[in-house]
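This section describes the prediction task in plain terms. A model, or a person checking by hand, is given the sequence of a single protein chain and must write out its three-dimensional structure as a string of tokens. No templates, partner chains or ligands are provided. The sample shown here is typical of the held-out split.
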Amino acid sequence: MLNKEIFEFPIVYTNPIPRIALGWGAHQTIGDECKAAGMKKALIVTSGLKGTGIVEEIKGIIEHAGVATEIFAKTTSNPKDHEIMEAYKVFKEAKCDGVVAIGGGSSIDTAKCVRVIDANGGQHVNNFTVFLDPPFAETLKKMKPCTVPQISVTTTSGTGAEVSSWAAISNTKDRAKVLVSGPNVQSTLAVVDPLLARTQPRDVAAWTGFDAMAHGIEAFVTKVQGPYAYGMLLRAVELIHNNLRDFVYNRMDKDACERMCWASTMGGIAIGFGAGAGIVHGLGHQVSALTDCHHGRINAVLMLAGELYNQPAAVDKFAALTKAMGVDTTGMTKFEAADRWFDEIEQLLDDLEIEPGNLSEQFGLEEKDIDHIVKVYSNDFCSQGNPKEFNKEEVTELMKHVLHEPY
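The expected answer:
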């Protein structure tokens, strides 16, 4: 029968955006915010952030407000399902009634999952992963809403997790990075404090900062991006392009630091406004699941290859991104402007000392891993929203190429 549907995505859905406190010293309000949220005992979820003093200071601020605390500091990059279940066990045994996540996306997403598990009878976190098949909407219908409050304190300049309604975790049994969601899973409050962001080491600042750039670029070129997100994403890309280098090489540059914090959060908000990610995130998630490499770094490493795959399907959007990055495109055709985008990103990666491609040398990825990566990606939301439709053979060839080549 002839398919008479006109629109691929006729309805743009948005996710709830939490209340946000962004500014210098915003972390000092956390004690009062915990109390206002009704917390009597908060589970602090973190990786530890050793040497920064951040966890110790925030713990003191919370307790000074009369709210008790318990700490779970075993979160690692690409948070693992067994870590999340251990965090939930600590939450229950300590009789906590709220969660404070301190760190990057891994800590924030672990905290979200603790709340999802608590709302749904203590089931294993992998029961709440959402895919294209079975339809994620049907999975979400079966889940009860989160009622435990969460304050998310971001210490990076790239996650966006503090304002999103998703959690990315590693299913260690299936060797896959998957998404968890649920009704009311978004943070109660997102605290974005440049004072904390500038404690990042240089390499982490580069990786997380480029993660924010990846959010801006991928959410802009996706097929499901709507007018709500359009201008915000271009502004985020502009801010990151103009400030990331300065911030990476001098985290005490207060203007660059603050602008990176704004840009990072803007990218997360825009994704929630009905945009989403694409092939770079989709494939990068699975490389992270197999090699445990940093999420922001793998997004940077795959950016040129992934968007070269996409370029024929989104020439106008790449041309717009080039202009947002400060390039005078007067006199260029849209194809020339779109090509120039790759030059700008290649230069940015070089300035940040991030090598594109060469996944075998950089992460130990092997050709035998590619079929698994592509299979998981094919059932990921990212493959649905990507501007160029999924083609197994082409994506497989892309991955084989970047095993040993830059892009």
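For orientation: The CA atoms of residues 119 and 146 lie 5 Å apart.
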